[in-house]
């Protein structure tokens, strides 16, 4: 019985063994200075959001930029999860993407994940009546423009606090509601020009006013469009 289990484990790990040898080869071809610089850049780019969502966004962006194909991307993602390491580091160590390019893609992935989360935060704040939808849209635009101008990515809650639109207590309340909102079943607005994220119980889209029939529920929470990360601006 033990022999059968060991054979099963060998078969499961076989597709990953090739990656291990490639990692070792890539490391042997790198100079010490390249490794040090790459580590620093990737560490800064990963930031506090180095988790599964960011890894998925990294693969999506890298495939869109034609650094590798989607099939290889899924294998890289599986290998990174198996090793419990950020996929950006794995890709750079394999030599598939240069360290500076991997760091740039990791920064973009981090931005897009956080941006998607902040869009959910804005939706919850508007539903709670803390800010109206026009103001929420304006703050999201300002957030995007600050990032584009090289001012860094400033979270939506920080922008609202600096504008004195929310207090720390309001922020905690909204974060609690965000968690509840993420767990609730979702649907999209049927209007092509809107496609806002709605709760299944919504009868009317609060963004455009369109009638909102109950369709098959979409994925919930801030994960609702991670499969379309390349379109998040």
Walk me through this protein's architecture:
This protein has 233 residues and is mainly alpha-helical. Among the domains are: 98 residues, no CATH class; 40 residues. It is 63% helix and 3% strand. Strands 1-2 form a two-stranded antiparallel sheet. The radius of gyration is 21 Å and the shape is globular.
Structural key phrases:
globular, mainly alpha, single chain, two-stranded antiparallel ribbon, 9 helices, 233 residues
Compact description:
The chain is an all-alpha fold. It has helices at 2-29, 32-46, 52-64, 70-83, 87-94, 99-127, 133-148, 156-162, 168-183; strands at residues 186-188, 197-199.
Please describe the topology of this protein.
Layout: H1 2-29, H2 32-46, H3 52-64, H4 70-83, H5 87-94, H6 99-127, H7 133-148, H8 156-162, H9 168-183, E1 186-188, E2 197-199
Antiparallel strand pairs: 1-2
């Amino acid at each position: 019985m033990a022999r059968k289990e060991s054979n099963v484990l060998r078969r499961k790990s076989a597709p990953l063994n090739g990656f291990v040898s490639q990692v070792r080869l890539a490391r042997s071809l790198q100079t010490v200075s390249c490794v040090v610089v790459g580590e620093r850049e990737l560490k800064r780019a990963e930031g506090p959001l180095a988790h599964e969502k960011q890894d998925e966004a990294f693969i999506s962006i890298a495939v869109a930029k034609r650094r590798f194909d989607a099939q290889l991307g899924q294998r890289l993602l599986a290998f990174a999860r198996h090793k419990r390491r950020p996929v950006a580091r794995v890709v750079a160590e394999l030599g598939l993407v240069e360290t500076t390019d991997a760091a740039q893609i990791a920064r973009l992935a981090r931005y897009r994940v956080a941006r998607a989360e902040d869009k959910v935060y804005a939706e919850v704040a508007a539903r709670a009546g803390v800010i109206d939808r026009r103001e929420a849209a304006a703050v999201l635009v300002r957030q995007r423009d600050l990032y584009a101008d090289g001012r860094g990515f400033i979270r939506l809650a920080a922008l609202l606090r600096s504008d004195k639109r929310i207090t720390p207590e309001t922020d905690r309340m909204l974060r609690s509601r965000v968690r509840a909102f993420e767990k609730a079943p979702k649907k999209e607005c049927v209007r092509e020009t809107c496609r806002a994220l709605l709760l299944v119980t919504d009868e009317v889209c609060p963004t455009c006013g369109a009638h909102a029939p109950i369709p098959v529920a979409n994925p919930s929470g801030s994960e609702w469009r991670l499969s379309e990360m390349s379109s998040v601006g």
